[in-house]
Amino acid sequence: MTEEGKSTVEAVATETRAKIESDSYAGLLGARLVEIKPGYAKVSMELGPQHLNFMDMVHGGVIFGLADVAFGAAANSFGSRAMALSVNIDFLAAPEVRGVMTAEVELVARAGKMGCYRMTVTDAGGSVVAQCRGWAYHTGKPLNREDEEESGRREESRG
Question: pTM for the full model?
Fold first, then answer.
């Protein structure tokens, strides 16, 4: 890690990326992982009528959902399990109702098992529609259950 809390490693393991891309909620939203690096993720989705509320505006839950999917990707990009502790969002503008909406997340600071992340959501025209900040708890346990089971077997054999 650098002083700013950003990783100097630029690659995410193939298994980690695959696990993150298997997120069924992201699939339900229509969100797809565009880019991922340790502590960073970019996720986008094509907006459609299913993402609009009764006022024909993009539903706030869709905006938050996209930011949260990207947050989960960034926080888990190190290959170990991380869970959100808190997230707050400020809606800054109504997004365009058509086109691609994108969320970018970056690790701002890491202190032990805690990580602070900044999320920015933009619409198809490039306008910032929401800013978020979230805290994640990094467990240190492998993201893939197979890795966790293998790690447990190694610990038992040392026992």
Answer: 0.85
CA atoms 88, 93, 95, 100: torsion sign: negative
- Rounded to whole angstroms, the Cα distance separating 78 from 38 reads 5
Q: State pLDDT tens for residues 4-58.
A: 444 445 799 999 999 999 999 999 999 999 999 999 999 999 999 999 999 999 9
How do strand 128-142 and strand 114-122 relate by DSSP bridges?
A: antiparallel
Q: Which fold has domain 14-158?
A: Thiol Ester Dehydrase; Chain A (3.10.129)
Q: How far apart are CA 33 and CA 45, in angstroms?
A: 9
Q: Which residues of 22-45 are buried (b: 16+ CB within 10 A; e: fewer)?
A: ebeebeebbbebeebbbbbbbbbb
Q: Is the distance from CB of 97 to CB of 57 less than 8 angstroms? A: yes
DSSP 45-85: EEE-GGGB-TTSSB-HHHHHHHHHHHHHHHHHTTSEEEEEE
**80-91 and 99-111 beta bridge pairing:** unpaired
What is the amino acid identity at position 106?
A: E
User: What is d(CA 114, CA 153) in angstroms, rounded to the nearest whole number?
Assistant: 27
